[in-house]
Structure to design on (410 residues):
């Protein structure tokens, strides 16, 4: 592990930057329905706006991954800071579909740039315990969603508008911008270890890396699509749909905080298999329950998706270290891109389901609410196929990695 001055401060600043990223998800998930009403947007348009954050993310995280070794992590984080500020201001003063589209794109670019710099930063300064520290870092993603959704819930109760709720994101943004501007950064782990650019690109063609990219599609959709849309899909099933997201993400915070002993006991691959099984069980309950049973589903689902994102990154960083920052960021970019495509597709699918469930000639508010009550769980049931497939895939991966380990020790 290369000596790093102010390692603890760099980690704290990274967590603050990720907090802004997650606040943007939590607050937007909480106000998405109101934005639709205020600006007269249908579910398809809302799906496109929500997906825009996921477009900006892969664009930034992939580009950032390719340039971070050249320009350094500090410069990337200054770019993230500027895009976050612009995105927050544009959201507050949004006047309709296109202004929301552009502001969400800016925030998505900022979010992706944060991950492009901070994932390799954490892996570099904690190269002796990557998966555990990546889990500790990424607990601030669900942590920020918990904070964001609770802010929306209580500020709504107090009658405080969504513009103020969005504006609160400026506080941690200014804090992380200030901290990063004052700190010295190490070079990335790949550069420090002397792995050439050519060797890095060869490592990206490793079949195991390609498999992990494909599996990242599924893990990201399972976690992020469900979290971003849970209020829209279940608000007619439960009076506290946004609290389901709060409970789910609260479980994720606790789980990632205790990642060390879990990862060391079950191995990253074992953790991924258990995660897929629990995700499928939780999603099944969310799609087939009502009332208090929904909260049981949210708890099990939170336990399932808890370790997906950071453990996928940790697996690649530990088992395919030559892929470097580019490998980690291609994983993140692939995940967010998959979520963006899936979100747009499912937004349109949800609109069609609602239309198909309306009684002929009846478009009253009561009929519409009943149609939405039936359509929301069907979208979750369609998504259930993904963690079921992941369960099979991770079981095969676990057997493969055990066989590889046995060969190495033979």
């Amino acid at each position: 592990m290369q000596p790093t001055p102010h390692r603890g401060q760099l980690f704290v600043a990274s967590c603050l930057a990720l907090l802004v990223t997650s606040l943007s998800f939590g607050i937007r998930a909480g106000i998405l329905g109101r934005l639709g009403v205020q600006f007269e947007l249908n579910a398809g348009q809302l799906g496109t706006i929500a997906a825009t954050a996921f477009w900006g993310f892969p664009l930034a995280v992939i580009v950032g991954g390719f340039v971070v070794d050249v320009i350094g992590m500090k410069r990337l984080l200054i770019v993230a800071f500027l895009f976050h500020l612009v995105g927050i201001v544009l959201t507050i003063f949004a006047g309709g579909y296109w202004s929301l589209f552009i502001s969400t794109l800016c925030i998505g670019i900022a979010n992706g740039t944060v991950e492009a710099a901070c994932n390799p930063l954490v892996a570099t300064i904690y190269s002796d315990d990557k998966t555990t520290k990546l889990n500790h870092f990424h607990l601030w993603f669900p942590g920020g969603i918990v904070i964001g959704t609770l802010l929306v819930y209580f500020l709504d109760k107090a009658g405080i508008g969504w513009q103020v709720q969005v504006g609160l994101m400026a506080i941690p943004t200014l804090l992380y911008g200030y901290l990063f501007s004052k700190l010295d950064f190490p070079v990335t782990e790949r550069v420090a270890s002397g792995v050439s650019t050519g060797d890095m690109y060869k490592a990206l063609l490793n079949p195991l890396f390609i498999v992990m990219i494909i599996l990242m599609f599924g893990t990201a959709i399972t976690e992020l699509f469900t979290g971003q849309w849970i209020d829209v899909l279940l608000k007619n099933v439960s009076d506290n749909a946004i609290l389901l997201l709060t409970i789910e993400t609260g479980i994720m915070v606790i789980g990632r905080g205790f990642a060390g002993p879990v990862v060391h006991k079950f191995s990253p691959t074992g953790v991924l298999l258990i995660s897929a099984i629990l995700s499928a069980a939780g999603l099944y309950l969310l799609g087939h329950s009502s009332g208090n049973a929904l909260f049981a589903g949210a708890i099990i689902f939170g336990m399932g998706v808890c370790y997906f994102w950071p453990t996928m990154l940790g697996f690649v960083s530990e088992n395919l270290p030559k892929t470097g920052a580019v490998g980690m960021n291609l994983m993140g970019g692939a995940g967010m891109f998959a979520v963006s495509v899936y979100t747009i597709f499912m937004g349109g699918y949800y609109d069609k389901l609602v239309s198909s469930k309306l009684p002929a000639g009846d478009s009253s508010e009561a009929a519409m609410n009943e149609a939405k009550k039936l359509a929301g769980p069907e979208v979750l049931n369609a998504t259930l196929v993904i963690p079921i497939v992941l369960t099979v895939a991770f079981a095969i991966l676990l057997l493969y990695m055990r066989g590889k380990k046995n060969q190495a020790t033979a």
Q: What stands out?
A: The mean pLDDT is 87.
